[in-house]
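Data card: per-record layout.
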Amino acid sequence: MTKEQILDAVDLPLEEIEIEEWGGSVFMRGLTAEERDIFEASFMDDGGEKRKTKNILLDNLRTKLVSLCLCNESGERLFQESDIKSLGKKNSHVIDRLFLRAQALSGIGEDGVKNLSKNSEGE
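The structure for this 123-residue chain is written out next.
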């Protein structure tokens, strides 16, 4: 393939998900490589060579990932970082379901999430 073919390829999965509790459906897409790096880095302290994860339970892990993946039907994000706290006030059961789909669409398995907290302080 050429560089242009690779860069022009539409490779982000996009799906519509019915959310009964919200009375409608939402669109979700997988993360770009850049978004995944930003997501993972958001849980890191700048500690030089010994970077350690922050307390993951206090960092809205689920809501952060969901906010990066919720989008319109064109794949454009609906939420920005400033919306995370507001989105975090929504039904935890709904956010958890969306988090699991966001993980699947983005290729982030349970092991990937565990690895974010693997080297946290005190472990």
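Known properties of this structure: The longest helix spans residues 92-106. The two ends are 45 Å apart (CA to CA).

See the next section for split statistics.
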